Structures are given as C-alpha cells and as structure tokens.
Amino acid sequence: MKASAIAHSNIAFIKYWGRSAEHPPLYNIPLNDTVSMTKLGLEDDVHLKTLTTIAFTDDQKTDMAYVNDEALTGRGMERVATIIDMLRESSGCELKFLMRSRNDFPTQAGMASSASGFAALARAAASALGLEMNAEDLSKIVRIGSGSAARSLHSGYVYFNRGTSHETSFAEQICDNDAFDIRAVIAVIDADRKKVTSDDGHASALTSPFNEARVMTSQKQAATIREAILERDFSSLGYIAEENCKYMHAVMMTSEPPLFYWQPDTLRVIKSVMRFREEGLECYFTIDAGPNVHCLCRPQDMEELNRLIRNLEGVKRTIQAKPGPGAYDTGQHLF
Ligand code: PMV
C-alpha cells in the first residue's frame, strides 16, 4: 500500500485569509470564495512542485512524516495526520503510515509550499488506500489541512467555493492550464521560513476592523475574476488580483497582533511594477503571506519583465511560471 504523487503550488488572485467562526475550526471553512492559478515553474532547478510518497504498512509502529528530510512534529504533524485519518477511515485501513515529501522550492516562505504539499499528500494517500476520489471530493478533505491546497488538486484556473458546510466547501476548475496563457515572474526577496505561518494568521484576521469589508469585496471580486478568466481578459484579471492583494495585506497589518509580511524590497518591487505598467509594459503584482512578489504578465512580455525584475535591488532571484497541472500519481517513489 504505497503510492506517490506530484502537485504544484498555486498563486491566489482572490485570497483566502481567515476561517469562518460559524463552523467547527477543524473544517477550516474560509471566510470567502477564492480564485487561483496552479503554477508550473519554468526554471531548470524549480518547477514549484512537491513530490510525496506515502506507505501504509505493518512495519510502521507510529505515524511518521518527513518534509525535505526533516521530521514533522507538533501542529505540522497534526495537520498531516488529520487528513490521513479521514482517508484511512473512509478506506477502513488501520495501518500506520510513513510519508516522505520533497519540495523543489523554498518551504514556508510565502510561496504556497503548503498548497503543493497537502495536495500531493492527499492524492498519494488516496491512491495508496485504493480510494477512487475525484479532485473536487478530495479538495474537501485537503481543505482541512490547508485551504489553498484544495485548489492545487486542479490544473489551471481554480475557484474555491467557501460553501456553508464541510460538504459544500470545495474547489472546482474554471478552465484548464492550456486554455489561457498568462505568466508570473516571482521576485524572491527572502526564501527563509516565515515567522508567522498562515495557519496562525487565519485566526487573527477576524480582529481587523477591515476584515468584513475585505470579505464582502472579495466575494464580488471572485465572481468578476472568474468571468475575466473565462473571457481571457488579462487586464481585468491583473487589476482585480492586485486590488485583492492590497485588501488582504491591509487586513494583516491591522490585525491584532499585526502582521507585516512585506520587507522594504517588497515595496520596491511593487512600485517598480506600477512604474513598468505606466511605461507601457502591462504587469500587475500579487503577494501571498510572505515578502516575495508575483508579477503577472502576458507570455510575450515575460522575458522582458523577468530581466527588469531580476535587476532590481533586493531581488535574490526570479522564478518564471505558467499555468500548471493538477495533482497526479507518479511511479517515482522517494523510498
Ligand atoms: O492555505 P493556507 O492556510 O496556507 O493559507 C493561504 C493563504 C494565502 O496564501 C495568503 C492566500 C491564498 O489564498 O493562497
């Protein structure tokens, strides 16, 4: 009972920040609908992916999980075990598991390693346990570990319905990765592990006086950006994504305790993106829970934007990306 899966990270255009207090915290039901693009890294050394192998075996006396050779403990292990417990229960399996996982990009640095990680974990575990589950059904379980991971099960552009219950809160595809080609140039400013995880951030979002306004606006923006994606309207997509990013960071900065994920160099990239746009290169920024900036552009502008961003002071490197595949099984095992 062993299987492996690969999943890619995703970038949120409409962000998930804060879980609903009206539902049991375990279910991790987001406050608003979210929209993302699953990403495939175009660099030789970075594809923005996680490879995970899991085995359920008599040889294991306790559940064990390793990410990049580091054993998971505490909350990290708890999140993994919760997902596996639900899948184990569905299959009737009582065996303990061993999991090994490898990211080809910085872990817990605001680059959605939890998204690819939990998506790969769930896909591999479902296969190892012989469960036939489609991406939508699996997304309900993955959401419990990480809301953004639910979206990485799908390829291309993805809509997450916040729903009103565990059963109705799931991710579905808007359109496939080859249906609409846009690009992201990721400005890596700091690849170190962030001090406050998004898991903790979701709890403090409700303390911001701007939280309600962000949630209401995000609902409208999610519907509009879905239309923009279906109409292949890059300008509307970029504009709305940039707005929504600013709202989320305003909530973060005004929460108790406040969260400032931006660094001075983050602001330098933001201002540069706005300047490049004024000068005629159409690009937009969006930032998750970290200092690194995703600069969105059309395919024909990626090379030029990459050159400009890479040369900015404070940018350690860039990672170019395009719409990527959903989670899939692989015969490439880590053990
Ligand atoms: O899924 P989590 O708990 O890692 O939270 C993700 C939060 C953001 O990346 C900031 C936004 C998002 O929707 O991906």
Core attributes:
335 residues; alpha+beta; eight-stranded antiparallel sheet; six-stranded mixed sheet; 14 strands; globular; binds (3R)-3-hydroxy-3-methyl-5-(phosphonooxy)pentanoic acid
Note the beta-strand portion: 15-25%
Poorly predicted runs of 5 or more residues: none
Distance between the termini: 13 Å
The biggest sheet amounts to: 8 strands, antiparallel
Q: Say how many strands there are.
A: 14
- Return the string of H and E elements: EEEEEEHEHHHEEEHHHHEEHEE
Radius of gyration: 19 Å
* Number of H/I helices: 9
Structural class: alpha+beta
Identify every distinct bound molecule in the structure, by name, code or SMILES: (3R)-3-hydroxy-3-methyl-5-(phosphonooxy)pentanoic acid
Q: What portion of residues is helical?
A: 25-40%
| Structural shape | globular
Give average pLDDT, whole number. 95
List the helices and strands and how they pair.
Elements lengths: L1 E7 L1 E5 L19 E8 L7 E9 L6 E4 L2 E2 L2 H18 L4 E8 L9 H16 L6 H11 L3 H4 L4 E5 L8 E6 L7 E6 L9 H7 L6 H20 L3 H20 L10 H15 L4 E4 L6 E5 L4 H9 L6 E7 L4 E3 L5
Parallel strand pairs: 5-7
Antiparallel strand pairs: 1-4, 1-14, 2-3, 3-8, 3-13, 4-7, 5-6, 8-9, 10-12, 10-13, 11-12
Helix pairs in contact: 1-2, 1-3, 2-3, 6-7
Bound molecules: (3R)-3-hydroxy-3-methyl-5-(phosphonooxy)pentanoic acid (PMV).
